[in-house]
Amino acid sequence: MARFVPALAAALLIAAGVLACGGETSSPAADDPVDAEPASNGHSDPQVADLNDPVAQRVEPFRIFDNLYYVGIRWVSCYLLVTTDGLILIDSLYGDHIDTAIDGIRTLGYDPADLKYVLVSHGHFDHVGGTARLQDAYGARVGMTAADWELAERPPDNPDWEIDVPVHDMVIADGDTLELGDTELRFYVTPGHTEGVLSMEFPVRDDGEEHRAFLFGGVGLNFEGVHRTNLYLDSVARIRRLAAEEGNPIDVNLSNHASMGRIFERGEQLASRAEGDPHPFVDPEGYVAWLAELQRNAEKKLVGERELAGE
C-alpha cells in the first residue's frame, strides 16, 4: 500500500498523536570534475565519448543492496528501489537511454509494469527525460518539487534538451514522506544546482542489516550567481547536519551521476567482495569527507561569483 504524506499533513498527524497521548574516502580528488551535469539544461562531458549513444553509454545493471539496483548509464545514474508493494525508480534517464533502464529492470527479474513511482532529483533533461514514457506506459506516478516541475515544463534554451513533458503529477515539498510497502522515503528540498533540487533518504539492506542511504539531488556547481551559490552552501550544510545525527549517521552515498559518488568503482569492489568483507558502499566517514569537499568547492565558487557581481 502506498502512502504519500505531505509535511503539513505529517505535522497534523504528529500533533494529533501528541494530543491523543496526553501531551573513501569518497571525497573527490582535486582533479576530479566538480560536475558532470548539464549547464543550464545540458552540456557535453569531455570524459564521455557520446552522451546520446546507447551502446557507448550502456552499463549492465547490478545489485548494490538487497533492495537497490543500478539501472543507469555511464553518465547519468538511475536507481531501482524494490519494495514489498512495487518498484520505485529514482531519476529516469533520457532519449534512447530510457530503454536501458527498462531493459535493466527486466534483466534483474522485475517487471516495469510494477513501477509505482518515478522520483526526479531535479528538472534537467538527463534526469527527467524518461518520465513521460514511464508514466504513459506503466502508470507510474512522477514526483518533483514545485520549482523543478516549472523547470521541466519550460521550453529549453537548446532544442537538443527537449523532452516529452510528463503530466503534472506529485508535487513534493520539504519534509514530505512516501511509504510503499516496507520502505519509507523522506524528502528534502536542497536548492542550489536548481531552484528545487530534491534530495531523499531511505533504508537499504545488506543481508538484513539496514543502512541509511542518501541521494543529494544536485551536486553540480554549473550554475551562476551569488544567491544560488549561497543556497547550495546552505543545502550542503544542512546535509552535513543530517549526516552527523548521533546514532543515525548517513552511511551510504548515492549520486545521480555515477562519477560523483564512485558508483562504478564501488560496484567493482562489491562484485569481488568476500564473505565477511565490509560493504564498499557503506562509508559514513567518507560521506562526511565528501560533503566537506563539496563545501570547499562551493566556497571557492562563491568568491568568484562575488567578484563577478562586484561585491
Give an overview in words.
The protein is of the alpha/beta class and about 300 residues long. It has a single domain, classed as Metallo-beta-lactamase, Chain A (4-Layer Sandwich), CATH 3.60.15.10. About 30% of the residues lie in helices and about 20% in strands. It has nine helices and 13 strands. It has helices at about 5-20, 55, 95-105, 125-130, 130-140, 145-155, 225-245, 265-270, 285-310; strands at about 1-5, 60-65, 70, 80-85, 85-90, 115-120, 140-145, 170, 175-180, 185-190, 200-205, 210-215, 250-255. The chain has a seven-stranded mixed sheet. It has a six-stranded mixed sheet with strand order 1-9-10-11-12-13. The radius of gyration is 19 Å and the shape is globular. The termini are far apart.
List keywords for this structure.
311 residues, alpha/beta, Metallo-beta-lactamase, Chain A, 7-stranded mixed sheet, 6-stranded mixed sheet, 9 helices
Spell out the helices and strands N to C.
EHHEEEEHEHHEHEEEEEHEHH
Strand order of the largest sheet: 2-3-4-5-6-7-8
Shape: globular
Report strand %: 15-25%
**Gyration radius from CA atoms, angstroms:** 19 Å
Weakly predicted, low-confidence segments: 9-48
CATH level-4 homologous superfamily: Ribonuclease Z/Hydroxyacylglutathione hydrolase-like
Overall pLDDT: 88
| Head-to-tail CA distance between termini | 53 Å
- The name CATH uses for the topology is Metallo-beta-lactamase, Chain A
Put the structure in a nutshell.
With 311 residues, the protein is α/β, with parallel strands linked by helices. 32% of the residues lie in helices and 21% in strands.
